[in-house]
Amino acid sequence: MQSWLPVPESASTLSGDVDALYFYIWGVTIFFTLLISVVVIFFVIRYRRRNPFEIPRPIEGSHKLETLWSVIPLLIAITFFVWGAKLYFAQYKPAQNAIEVYVVGKQWMWKFQHATGQREINELHVPVGRKVKLIMTTEDVIHDVFVPAFRIKADVVAGKYTTEWFEATKPGTYNFFCAEYCGMNHSGMRGYVVVMEPTEYENWLSGNAGQTSPAAAGRNLFESLGCISCHGANAEGGRGPALLGVYGSKVVLNNNSSVTADEGYIRESILNPQAKLVTGFGPIMPSFQGQISEEQLLDVVAYIKSLSTTKPEQATAKPAPSATPSTGAKPSATPK
Amino acid sequence: MEEFEIPKQPGSNYLNAEYGLKSWLLTKDHKRIALLYLGAISFFFFIGSLYAMAIRLELLTPQGDLMQSSTYNKTFTQHGIIMVFFFLIPSIPATLGNFLIPMMIGAKDLAFPRINLLSWYIYMIGGVITIYALLAGGVDTGWTFYVPYSTTFSNSYVIATGLGIFINGFSSILTGLNFIVTIHTMRAPGMTWFRMPLFVWAHYATSLIMILGTPVVAITILLVALERLAHIGIFDPAAGGDPVLFQHLFWFYSHPAVYIMVLPAMGVVSELIANFSRKNIFGYKFVAFSSLAIAVLGFLVWGHHLFVASQSVYAGMIFSFLSFTVAIPSAIKVFNWTATLYKGSISYDTPMLYGLGFIGLFTIGGLTGMFLASLATDVHLSDTYFVVAHFHYIMVGGTLLAYLGGLHYWWPKISGRMYPEGWGRFSALIVFVGFNLTFSPQFLLGYMGMPRRYHTYPAELVSWQVLHVLSTAGASILGVGLMIPLVYLAWSLRYGRIAEANPWHLPGLEWQTASPPPTENFLTTPIVTHEAYEFAPPEHKEVVGKFERQQPAET
After folding, report:
1. If you average pLDDT over every residue of chain A, what do you get?
2. Which CATH class is domain A214-314?
3. A312, B217, B289, B389 — which has fewest CB within 10 A?
4. Is the CB of A23 inside 8 Å of chain B's CB atoms?
């Protein structure tokens, strides 16, 4: 199952690149460790004390050598930096056209919810050859989703959404671990990513169909929590801004700055509505902090996302669809 | 070397000048305070080692069979807290630094002898509170105290332990302050900055970090306690706080703290390499300034602990680059030590074996830091056993080896007795082998994906268990290697050969007085006319041959 090299299975589009960098740094490490060891051992033998009274000739030092052994390590370090940074950028760049899976960590289990409604605990089924983006948060302490076979890891932080993505290249079952210490059963907070052939995956999806999709569940919450009274029965707006098409758009705020309405912004606007008020709207929305679980919150976010067909990366030029009287207008009421 | 003249001393030395418990507990002599510290940190090291053995035994099998998860979590937490705050940080500065800095610069004592004693009492109060917390039920947050686990979720003695560490921090601050003032104001006539032994330079750099960094961790721990008690909302997002802010504050101190641990060790190794090759250090100024460069750059790299903690990608890139720059002064030191050996007269005494071992292990420890400073590899490696292996190479392979080397080197000066050389060399070898067997498998474990702070691991991963078994076997060897010096050093206090004033025949000022030294260190204030590590006085010129000595720039 595993190769003889002490590396975990390599099963994502980026895992081979990470391995290449890893082996490159090992090459340099082994080279310099051997160089220093061989030179030290040679000197220690060659210049061993032969008579108790000998005093060797002092040597002051050499600016040339100092420059040489400062510049060479610096140049090598810069190659590590550039390579590592480039790959890191690819690792954390938001994935386009990815299957989105919502992840909620809690002491000591993982809950996954697919956009199509399937919910899983400590197991995640994904198709091979498709990008999968995890949108993650936690109900309690900081956790971390670490899949060694994909060489990915990201903390799951209370109070915000973090993301990571992967594209599996080989069907199989891979371990994943919680990699941020989270209390008593930390080492039990692990599970498996099951990577399937696309047809198998379709079968799995249909075999587990019938569960409410997050967007539909979010729609129900949108009604039961009373969001409709201000945002409109179909989120068309009213006393509150319209939410149709808001996801992924640039929203102009009452201080004339603007923000892209991503998952994090929607989350913040539900839990702390006064933080970033849309221009033209007063601070009248109550906070839903403590009244809605992380999973419910993700459902509402999924519903609001479903009202928009654009992706955030593609929507930068799109104007804010909310009912703004005029750009640059003073807010009708100032937040307290 | 016989020409060095050592003044005849009267019978009294710092050990027999006064007797009785009170003479120790109220002493203002930096040498006695160093011994008080030596006793205390040895005790804490012993406790920390017991936790380490418990961890290694538990990990022999994938299941949790020695203890429960909650006990295991407390075990690694307490191992970390005791080793970091009560052993590694004070280890070299508070014992060897305390004993030797005044002697190396030709002073009678530190600038503030009473504050020096106070810092020991503060350390002990912090230690007693921490021990109380461990006995009362222990703490399970990890030594890093990450929120919101430590503020809201942990049911263990977080505040008591935090208080112990908070108090202990002041001992570090006072020690740092004392060293800085001493080095600035108490140098003997002729002891210019560039004649100071590199041990003193290293402690100067360390002291800067102690007084600039330690207050930040004290404030951070205070905030954790306030958040836990009063829920003030600094770190809790529900109350408008940010849990990642804690990580920034914590690592702003705790990364430089790594340099508090390793810079003094580098100072010791500079002494060992130069003195046991009878050579001046190659590139003295480069080695001296590299300590300061490490101290300064060390404050700019804390964000490399947050590459996967939802820090911005661009902040990650800046911290990654700055982290690589710290590698340069560290590399300069390693190359200069190596070059110092060239055409030296190298002895194989125990301290030198530790010094040479340090170079090898520090090189590996430093180079494996490159994997973690490099962003993409750190994503895979952070919070795995690779990190555990890396920092143990720096802290155990680096600091502990240098500490043991320094202890052997200055043992004749401290105790007035020689340790048994054969046993010394033997145990140095055992420590080196045991150390490598313990921690090198952990690099592989980490890349294979074993997360740190794991009580159990998947049984189907047989290779993980094999590596854990190797590591535990190594830890047993390391344990034996550390017990041997404990026994023979204690033995030597009574039965060791009486040490001469200058048993190694060295030019350093600390050797130009009796062993053990008198309370005031020197009978007359020394006047310094030589640079550090000057082994070739003018009368030896013809023995040396072609060498023409340059006149020092300043006199």
Report:
1. 87
2. mainly alpha
3. B289
4. no
Q: Hey, are the CB atoms on B375 and A186 less than 8 Å from each other?
A: no
In angstroms, rounded to a whole number, what is the distance separating the alpha carbons of residues A43 and B168?
A: 43
- Are A74 and B328 inside 8 Å of each other by CB? yes
Distance of CA A99 to the CA centre of its chain: 14
> How far, CA to CA in Å, does B553 sit from each of B192, B531, B537, B550?
11, 10, 17, 9
CATH topology of domain A99-207: Immunoglobulin-like (2.60.40)
First to last CA, chain A: 62
Domain residue extents for chain A: 99-207, 214-314
**Ramachandran angles phi, psi of B346, nearest 5°:** -90, 125
Query: Distance between CA atoms of A229 and A218, rounded to whole angstroms?
Result: 16
Per-residue pLDDT of B500-528, as tens digits, reads 999 999 999 999 999 999 999 998 899 99
Interface list for A 266-325 with B (CB within 8 A): 272, 289-290
Q: Whole-angstrom Cα distance, residue B410 to residue B96? A: 8
The kind and range of the H/E element at A114 are strand A109-114
Partner-chain contact B317 A162, CB within 8 Å: no
Give the three-state DSSP class for A143. strand
User: Contacts of residue B465 in chain A, CB cutoff 8 Å?
Assistant: none
Neighbours of A300 (CB within 10 A): 24
Q: What is the pTM of this model?
A: 0.90
Give the per-residue pLDDT at B373.
96
Candidate from A57, A142, A157 with C-beta closest to B544: A57
Q: How far is CA B78 from the centre of its chain?
A: 18
Residue A201 CB contacts under 8 Å (≥ 6 apart), including other chains: A125, A126, A127, A128
Chain B residues inside the 8 Å CB shell of A177:
449, 451, 454
Reading the block at residue B460, the tokens are 């189907």
- Residue A323 confidence (pLDDT): 38
Residues 182-241 of A with CB under 8 A from B: 182-188, 190
pLDDT band at B465; cut points 50, 70, 90: very high
Task: Note the pLDDT tens digit of each residue in B252-301.
Answer: 999 999 999 999 999 999 999 999 999 999 999 999 999 999 999 999 99
Q: Which of A150, A153, A185, A292 to mutate to test the interface with B (most CBs of B within 10 A)?
A: A153
A85 touches chain B (CB under 8 A): yes
CB of A166 within 8 A of CB of B434? no
Q: How far apart are CA A49 and CA B341, in angstroms?
A: 11
List the one residue out of B413, B522, B499, B528 whose CA is nearest residue B10. B522
Return d(Cα B162, Cα B158) in angstroms, integer: 6
Which residue blocks in chain A are alpha helix, DSSP H? 15-46, 63-92, 198-207, 214-224, 228-231, 263-271, 294-306
User: Which site among A30, A65, A155, A274 would you substitute to test the B interface, given the most B Cβ atoms closer than 10 Å to its Cβ?
Assistant: A155
What ipTM describes this predicted complex? 0.90
Q: Is pLDDT of A296 > 50?
A: yes
Residues B87 and B45 sit within 8 Å (Cβ to Cβ): yes
At residue A3, the pLDDT reads 58
Q: Which of A15, A44, A67 to mutate to test the interface with B (most CBs of B within 10 A)?
A: A44
Q: Test A177 with B451 for CB contact under 8 angstroms.
A: yes
Report residue A163: phi and psi, to 5°. -130, 155
DSSP annotation of A125: E
Terminus-to-terminus CA distance in chain B, angstroms? 23
Q: Which of B341, B342, B377 sits opposite A18 (nearest CB)?
A: B377
Can you list the domains of chain B with their CATH numbers? Answer: 28-540 (1.20.210.10)
